[in-house]
Write a structure and sequence with these properties.
The protein has helices at about 115-130, 130-150, 160-185, 190-200, 210-225, 230-240, 250-260, 265-275, 285-295, 305-315, 325-340, 340-355, 365-375, 380-390, 400-415, 415-430, 435-450, 455-460; strands at about 475-480, 485-490. The chain is an all-alpha fold and about 500 residues long. A hairpin with a 5-residue loop joins β1 (about 475-480) and β2.
């Protein structure tokens, strides 16, 4: 079986011509009416809580006999300062070179070091210092190195080689986790959070499973030392019952602690809770908007959600709280899109394709934003590019049946039902690919099983008759206001005579 070719991304040299500006305070009307209804905005959830393992209890003892145990400066608890300084460095080490650079060869004899040699030098340098921050950096380096350590492709003849490579990677993780535990026991705040994050993501745990039973206490510990991300993660654990009992009130406390430090994720969650009356809070749209506004002001690529939610609120308005403001909504969507947030980019792609929310119809900007969303795997954006490639755009995007098929297949493989039907039709007729009736039937069955009536009709009706191919020779794909496409031959058929089966978008 040959690997499927990947679709090419459209040109990306399109730049929005409207002014970008930082989100300003939401336009509010001084009234506390709360008669509007809001739909909750789904949060990205981690995997469900895992059960306690016999060998996974957190006890602070090292898991191996390494050189870090004998260092005397850890006899006293490690203290921390504010989040701005992160930590207090230990007393200065003895006089002498801390980092050994003798291995470096300048000039014509310069050479790159092997992965193992780099690790050995880093370990040797870490042994010479008593600075917990540098040791923490070394532990992080080992975790990162374990992720990129090459593992040979298993074959019948290299079983031992693969096992050795896997064992080497596990030893590296074990050494890093032992060092992180020692640092965490001495009160090193970044180590406490990073170790908790490793447990929560199944790094260094039993069978590489998520272990919130060990992660949650460390999140709480780092939060008490002033780590905003740890406070936010502790809040999500309390809200969902990961590693602890589900307690909404305690979750709010942790969220507010993180929000006080300007954490955009915590501010967003509190804003949604106020809008919808969640987490035991009374419904208060005005307070919810304030939280969302603060989150938008601190938005990052990891937490752009408040920009998107504020845009939706300004699109429909809130009685006695927010005016409808399409222009501002489009600006907020653009800011979220430039941070790589796929839903915002897809929404803007629609706006510039069909002229919604006061945006002009602009194929270049539409394709630009669909492109941003498609790069993030947004299935609707991938299918939108299918439509654009079927018809093309003069001077912007060349017409290509092959690219249309590849983008439709990408959307179908991501689970979009209408894309499954389209792929079946492309394979049946031979649009952008060689005709393959057996594969077409399989895609029709997948779409029909999920409720696509057109796919069910194709399976019931005759499938061996030639049909008009959208985007193919002698035909054109028409786009209507709803974004659907239908195919009519160039022979001048009226709308009533068009084959309804050829509506694929």
């Amino acid at each position: 079986m040959y690997a499927q070719p990947q679709p090419r991304l459209p040109p990306t040299n399109f730049t929005p011509d409207f002014e970008q500006r930082r989100p300003s305070p939401a336009r509010e009307i001084p009234n506390d009416r709360t008669d509007s209804q809001y739909s909750p905005y789904p949060l990205q959830q981690p995997q469900p809580r895992q059960s306690q393992y016999d060998d996974a209890s957190y006890n602070g003892d090292g898991d191996g006999d390494d050189f870090y145990q004998s260092q005397s400066q850890y006899d006293q608890p490690y203290t921390t300062r504010s989040i701005a300084t992160q930590s207090v460095r230990a007393p200065s080490p003895p006089q002498g070179p801390i980092l050994d650079h003798s291995h470096l060869r300048p000039g014509n004899q310069a050479a790159l070091l092997s992965h193992e040699r780099t690790l050995e030098l880093y370990r040797a340098n870490a042994k010479k210092t008593q600075d917990p921050d540098l040791q923490f950096e070394f532990a992080v380096f080992m975790i990162d190195a374990s992720k990129t350590m090459p593992i040979p492709t298993p074959t019948p003849g290299n079983v031992m080689e693969v096992e050795k490579a896997i064992a080497k990677r596990e030893d590296l993780i074990h050494e890093a986790m032992s060092l992180l535990k020692r640092l965490a026991d001495r009160g090193h705040m970044p180590a406490q959070y990073f170790l908790a994050d490793c447990y929560a993501n199944g790094i260094g745990t039993h069978k590489n499973r998520q272990d919130f039973d060990r992660a949650f206490p460390l999140f709480v510990l780092a939060a008490k030392h002033g780590h905003p991300d740890a406070a936010y993660r502790a809040g999500t654990c309390c809200e969902n019952g990961w590693g602890c009992r589900r307690e909404a009130a305690k979750a709010v406390q942790f969220y507010k602690k993180a929000a006080a430090a300007g954490h955009p994720g915590a501010l967003y969650r509190l804003g949604i809770a106020e809008l919808n009356g969640e987490l035991g809070l009374s419904k208060s749209p005005k307070e919810g908007v304030k939280y969302l506004k603060r989150s938008a002001e601190n938005a990052t690529a990891e937490f752009p959600h408040a920009l998107h939610e504020l845009a939706l609120l300004h699109e429909r308005g809130i009685d006695n709280v927010l005016f409808v403001d399409y222009e501002y909504a489009a600006e907020l969507l653009a800011q979220a899109a430039e941070l790589g947030y796929a839903p915002s980019a897809y929404r803007l792609g629609e706006c510039y394709e069909y002229g919604k929310m006061g945006c002009p119809q602009d194929p270049a900007l539409s394709i630009h934003y669909y492109n941003i969303a498609a790069q993030q795997g947004h299935r609707d954006a991938c299918f939108a590019l299918t439509a654009w490639y079927l018809v093309g755009s003069p001077g912007v995007l060349p017409q290509s049946d092959t690219e249309a098929y590849l983008w439709a297949r990408k959307a179908a493989e991501a689970g979009l039902v209408k894309a499954m039907y389209a792929v079946g039709y492309f394979l049946e007729v031979g649009i952008g690919t060689e005709p393959n009736m057996q594969e077409a039937i399989q895609w029709y069955k997948r779409a029909a099983e999920q409720g696509d009536k057109r796919a069910a009709q194709r399976l019931r009706g005759p499938t061996n008759q030639p049909m008009i191919a959208p985007g193919g020779p002698g035909s054109v794909l028409h786009r209507n206001e709803n974004g659907s496409g239908d195919s009519a031959s160039a022979s001048g058929k009226s709308g009533k005579d068009k084959d309804k089966d050829c509506v694929i978008m």
